[in-house]
Amino acid sequence: MNTVTENINIDDRMLVRRYCDGDMKAMERLIVKYQDRLFNTILRMCGNRDDAVELTQDAFVKVLESIDKFEGRSSFYTWLFRIAVNLTLNYCKRRIRASAEPLEGGAVGNRSIAASGLRTMLSDGGSPDPARLAMDREMRELVLASLERLDSDQRTIVILRDIEGMSYAEIAETLCIEIGTVKSRLSRARSLLREILEAVLK
């Protein structure tokens, strides 16, 4: 763990302790610190802005209800995301979703896009050139639409790794699975996502 990450985690644990001692502003700081990242992750998982707002609120309510169970063995960030991801996955499994055509093995097009570039592709930054911005926006929409065609577990793995930038260890801790399982699921999810994008871009 690098010094910057370690300092962030120490600061989070300190804020949790302050909140447990009655300092309400300490929890406000934690919410402000993570609410945008949490909302964006949930939005990409569920694909609906209104639902993402509600699920983000639900996640923080759950945190407040369960804060006494946080023992500090993991980072607050990982613990928070575990709660949010579980809430969102449960929601996605309950939601009636339109059935998608199964992926069929077929010829792979020449315009391959590496799934590992999703974080850059979906970042808010961009070129000042309007034509380039329009192209980037169109590509982001295409990738997000393609993510929707993955099942919820695969979509979550890709989002946490390639968009949120979590390490394999953090993902394993968040999803309560082995690191080897994270790697195999991620490999399969990236492969499927690549097939979807290649089929669209042929």
What does this structure look like?
The chain is built from 9 helices and no strands. The chain is mostly helical and 202 residues long. It folds into 2 domains: 3-94, RNA polymerase sigma factor, region 2, helix turn helix motif (Rna Polymerase Sigma Factor, Chain: A), CATH 1.10.1740; 115-201, Winged helix-like DNA-binding domain superfamily/Winged helix DNA-binding domain (Arc Repressor Mutant, subunit A, Orthogonal Bundle), CATH 1.10.10.10. It is globular and about 60 Å long.
Indicate the proportion of strand residues: under 5%
Task: Indicate the structural class.
Answer: mainly alpha
Task: Look at the structure and give the mean pLDDT.
Answer: 77
Helix amount, in percent?
over 70%
The shape is: globular
Instruction: Give the count of helical stretches.
Output: 9
Order of helices and strands: HHHHHHHHH
**CATH fold node name of the largest domain:** Rna Polymerase Sigma Factor, Chain: A
Overall CATH class of the largest domain: Mainly Alpha
Label the CATH architecture of the largest domain.
Orthogonal Bundle
Distance linking N and C termini? 42 Å
